[in-house]
Amino acid sequence: MSPNLLHQFNDSNHTSDMRRSTVLFLLLICLAVPIAPSSSSAQPAPIWKPQQREPLEKYDNPPAARRKIETSPRMVSRLGSFVSYQVNVDASGNNIIGDAANECSISVDPTNLSRMAIGWRQFDDVTSNFRQAGYGYTTDGGLTWTFPGVLEPGFFRSDPVTQSDEAGTFFYDSLRTDGFSFFCTDIWSSTSGGASWSLISGEQGAIGGDKQWFTIDKTSGPGHHFQYQAFDQSNCAGGLFNRSTDAGVTWETPVDIPNEPTFGTLDVDSHGNLYVGGEGSIFYCARSSNAQIGGQTPTFDQITPVDMGGDLSGGGINPAGLDGQCFLAVDHSGTATNNYVYMLASVLPPGQSTTDVMFVRSTDGGLTFSAPLRVNDDTNHQSKWHWFGTFSVSPNGRLDAVWYDTRNAANNTDSQLFYSYSTDAGVTWSANVAVSNSFNPSEGYPNQDKIGDYITIMSDETSGNVAYSATFNFNPNNGQHEEDVYYVRVFPGGQRPSPTPTPTASPSATPTPTATLAPTATPSPTPTGSPSCTPIVINGSIANGDPTQTDKLVHSGIPQTCPATTACARRAVSDSFRYDAYTFTNTTGATQCVTINTNTACEGDQDIFIAAYLGSFDPNNICNNWIGDSGQSPGPNPNQAFRVDVDNGQTIVVVVSEVHHFGCPAYTLTVTALCGGGSPTPTATATPTATPTPTPTATSTATVTPTATSTPTATLTPTATPRSTPTPRFQPTPRPRPTPAPRP
Questions:
Q1: Band of the pLDDT at 602, cuts 50, 70, 90?
Q2: Is the torsion defined by CA of 404, 408, 409, 412 positive or negative?
Q3: Whole-model pTM above 0.85?
């Protein structure tokens, strides 16, 4: 971690216009308004409209004194098919006790989806709201993260926003401020996948202002690589918008946007037109068709009022912060919906005291918009919070939306991350599904009563990559959970009925997820239409001595079905991973839809992945002969199966591989619908050419012949020297704690 150095201010004091001075005066007055105590048992904090009321990003605490750094195991939190991995970990991959991290922005390298970067507000100690520009990166698709430190140790920074260009260069837009004399931004870039960053604009060189957002022109038009930035009235040099025509190095003097839409985001369509969405007195979508022309001063030639079904709000469940921003995105799919303009926000509808996630779309370049459509589908939504709504458009046009949701909380505070998607350009949305465990957002405040102002998502062809803050980890030193940054991959296919709300014993009784060891699986029921037979069951493990494969498969989140609906995709990781392989032959006399199910207690660092291959498996080309996979790492749930079609006489190889390098001490593989075929044979080594099955290695030494038998072997029990079962990783257990005293 970076040392806590004294904050240093830049001597330059940029001139602001009269409007900024007036807004600053109003904002400073508003800071005197008392905020409700930060306790989930207290009455909700007052709700306020962000325009001219949103508290300033303010340097009002010095860095906390140095302290002994304590750690605990990183949190890996699983809910059904969805796994959240902690991002802000130390050099050993452990949770740092006593810090806080929120307001996270994610970017994905489009040339290598395994590479992602997240920026966030880093508080080295919860006793101070002094914050810096934290960042982390992953090279394995979000399963593990590295947190090298902050952009500029010892300097107060806030409002992190990250983006990636089409070549995989990451950019970080960071706000520097002292809260009264300047609100300026600068741009950093990374060509190492987020592992290191360089200041390319100079200190405060992007000008900008508070609540800034930026986007990159990725078209092949005249604005290629232009960067566009919008911000609010608390700014560096007036205006609400400026641009860079040299990929973020130099920035032009800001200009105004008519009707002043703020607290929003920007995007560019395939013709190079720039769109800015946000809220002034009402919501607006502003278009500039000449921002892409370097020799012209940008003007906004189309300003469209937009009915979002309510207004942005602050306070309430997030006392000192926003309850959501306005997110705008353009469809770049190249399909019939190409260049559709979408907007989504958590808004406060008329007559309500809680927010809903609302969506609108434009099919005519932002000239007109649809009526607002509510995305959250709970029946009693009028009394529940649906906050921090955000969304992304995938390269193939799917819309992915996530938000925090209290529908399952008796105290109406404990929140879960929820997900919904649309495959028809937002006309309809899928059933909402919880994708995280419950957490109390009012705990772990870093001397500032909020968990940030936003979360973010970036979509690829199959899934959405989400960066969000949650309080799963427990801090035994102050008796509260603490704010950390998490990554979760959301995807269609994880939809299940929302759980029935259940009362909680107390507002602070949010359990910390723990793994349940269940190495023995309950076999899946025989699929309809398959012959009646006893499923083939194999108990195995992955450990030293097992063969290795090069690379690993992308976790699409979609288990293969009959007929096939998914395609093979590799992570493109130059690394080796251990695996077990089992060979089966269909001698039933007919084509079978074979069900392959895996049950294990191995989770987190011990995740496994299962795939099926036709004829043979090539460990050096793991997409060769691929016919399907599990789409996700299985857990204790005994019904996480995938299915593949196998013709009569065909042989398949089922491969169980480790996702990291920690092996798996026990798993159960169940194969259904191959009765009458050959017994499963563990394959010690695999080659791209089908060869007679070799004698199994010491990992599974049961003697099995490839000759078909009248009755399939029910179970193959490994007879190698037993390995010791690893001690489950420590998961902090919540304990009773007093309600924190209100801060003055």
A1: confident
A2: positive
A3: no
What distance in Å separates the CA atoms of residue 385 and residue 427, rounded to the nearest whole number? Answer: 23
Q: Residue 94 — very low, low, confident or very high, per pLDDT cuts 50/70/90?
A: very high
Return the half-sphere exposure (C-beta side, CA atoms, 13 A cut-off) of residue 197.
Answer: 29
Structure tokens at 137: 């990166």
Q: Please state, in angstroms and as integers, the Cα–Cα distance from residue 619 to each residue in 417, 540, 636, following that order.
A: 37, 19, 27
CA distances in angstroms from 136 to 151, 200, 257, 473, 489, listed in the order given:
11, 19, 34, 18, 16
DSSP secondary structure of 318-338: EEEEES--EEEEE--SSSTTT
Closest CA to 462 of 358, 610, 568, 575: 568
Answer yes or no: are the C-beta atoms of 507 and 493 closer than 8 Å. Answer: no
Is residue 583 a contact partner of residue 536, using CB atoms and an 8 Å limit? no
User: Per mean pLDDT, which range of 123-137, 217-231, 715-729 is the poorest?
Assistant: 715-729
Amino acid identity, residue 470? A
- Between the two ends of the chain, the Cα-to-Cα distance in Å is 30
CB proximity list for 22: less than 8 A, separation 6 or greater: none
Residue among 468, 469, 467, 417 nearest 443 (CA):
469
At residue 290, the pLDDT reads 98
* Pair 429, 420: CB distance under 8 Å: yes
Burial of 650-680, coded b for 16+ CB within 10 Å and e otherwise, reads bbbbbbbbbbbebbbbbbbbbbbbbbbbbbb
DSSP class of residue 605 equals G
Q: Which residue has the tokens 């493109």?
A: 572
Pairing of strands 266-268, 241-244: unpaired
Name the range with the highest mean pLDDT among 494-498, 611-615, 733-737: 611-615
Summarize the confidence of residues 160-182 as an average pLDDT: 92
d(CA 91, CA 458): 26
Q: CA 538, CA 542: separation in Å to the nearest integer?
A: 13
Q: What is the pLDDT of residues 332-350, one digit of tens each?
A: 999 999 999 999 999 999 9
At residue 238, what is the residue type? G
Q: Rank 64-78, 242-256, 560-574, 593-607 by mean pLDDT and report only the highest.
A: 242-256
- Read off the pLDDT of each residue in 564-587 and give the average, rounded to a whole number: 84
What's the pLDDT band for 640 if we cut at 50, 70, 90? low
**CA angle 46-455-303, nearest 5°?**
80
- Give the integer Cα–Cα distance in Å for 151 and 162: 13
What is the three-class DSSP state of 94?
strand
Average pLDDT on 245-269 reads: 98
Q: Which residues does residue 302 pair with via DSSP β-bridges, in sequence order? A: 287
Q: Which amino acid is at 104?
A: C
Report residue 493 as tokens.
Answer: 């296919």
pLDDT at 281 over 70: yes
Give mean pLDDT, residues 359-383. 98
Q: Scan for tokens 């990559």, then name that residue.
A: 465
**What span, in angstroms and rounded, lies between the C-alpha atoms of 296 and 317?**
44
CB 170 within 8 A of CB 107: yes
The answer to whether the beta carbons of residues 108 and 187 sit under 8 Å apart is: no
* Best CA proximity match to 285, nearest among 303, 258, 273: 303
d(CA 705, CA 275): 66
Q: With cut-offs at 50, 70 and 90, classify the pLDDT of residue 569.
A: confident
Burial class of residue 736, CB neighbours in 10 A (0-12, 13-18, 19+): exposed
Peptide bond connecting 547 to the previous residue in cis, omega within 30 degrees of 0: no
Q: Which two tokens stand for residue 13?
A: 């004091």
Q: Using an 8 Å Cβ cutoff, are 663 and 542 in contact? A: yes
The per-residue pLDDT for 484 is 98
Structure tokens of 524? Answer: 């899946």
Split at pLDDT 50, 70, 90, the class of 79 is very high
Which backbone phi and psi does 137 adopt, to 5 degrees? Answer: -145, 160
DSSP 64: P
> What residues pair up with 580 in beta bridges, in sequence order?
656
